[in-house]
UniProtKB/TrEMBL annotation:
Keyword Kinase on entry: no
NCBIfam families named among the record's database cross-references: purE
Pathway membership, UniProt: Purine metabolism; IMP biosynthesis via de novo pathway; 5-amino-1-(5-phospho-D-ribosyl)imidazole-4-carboxylate from 5-amino-1-(5-phospho-D-ribosyl)imidazole (N5-CAIR route): step 2/2
Domain of life where this protein originates: Bacteria
Protein known as: N5-carboxyaminoimidazole ribonucleotide mutase
Entry EC number(s): 5.4.99.18
One Pfam family recorded for the sequence: AIRC
GO terms, biological process: 'de novo' IMP biosynthetic process
Domain (PurE): residue spans on this chain: 21-172
Reactions the enzyme catalyzes: 5-carboxyamino-1-(5-phospho-D-ribosyl)imidazole + H(+) = 5-amino-1-(5-phospho-D-ribosyl)imidazole-4-carboxylate
Length: 181
């Protein structure tokens, strides 16, 4: 797999420099980009070609339906969907496609993203959305989870993931706090 472009405009449709995108990163508004860019950065780090799009569930319902209907045919293996407030996008996307959907609750202005989290995580039985933490960590972890799924059939990617984990372990082992006094 090849590294995708580093052009981080939220309106960019395709990021993979070579090969078709295997991951979609979609969000309800350009205002979600500050959170969702952490998913794209992680996919970039692992060389996963991805595409990004703003698709608002309530403002662009027909575009949302079209994206969902074409996702599998276009070769997407996972869709990371972020939204804030009454966050319908991940659940609706999961209803529109068999491609796994990874939901990222974006912090909202008044309820700090607790509304987004509950909107995404409380899917009724039968149409799952894998739901991650509110904010940047959730966006990065959604990408890592998608990468882990892809790595089950890609030994080279599995090695990259193991190396990533090992670096985190080393960094934690080297952490220090100031001495007493
Ligand atoms: C949701 O409403 C978006 O996902 C975003 O988190 C929130 C605010 O959208 P904007 O008013 O910034 O476009 O649809």
């Amino acid at each position: 797999m090849t590294a995708s472009t580093s052009n981080h405009s939220p309106a960019v449709a395709g990021r993979g420099t070579v090969g078709a995108p295997v991951a979609g990163v979609i969000m309800g508004s350009s205002s979600d980009w500050e959170i969702m860019r952490h998913a794209v950065a992680m996919l970039d780090e692992f060389g996963i070609p991805c595409e990004t799009r703003v698709i608002s569930a309530h403002r662009m319902p027909l575009d949302m339906a079209e994206y969902g209907a074409s996702a599998a045919k276009r070769g997407l293996r996972g869709i990371i969907a972020g939204a804030g407030g009454a966050a319908h996008l991940p659940g609706m996307m999961a209803a529109l496609t068999p491609v796994p959907v990874y939901g990222v609750p974006v912090p909202s202005r008044y309820l700090r993203g607790e509304d987004s989290l509950l909107s995404i995580v409380q899917m009724p039985r039968g149409v799952p959305v894998a739901t991650f933490a509110i904010g940047e960590a959730g966006a990065a972890n959604a990408a890592l989870h998608l990468i882990a799924c892809l790595a089950t059939t890609d030994a080279a990617l599995q090695e990259k993931l193991s190396a990533f984990r090992a670096r985190q372990t080393d960094a934690a082992r080297n952490m220090a706090v100031p001495p007493p006094g």
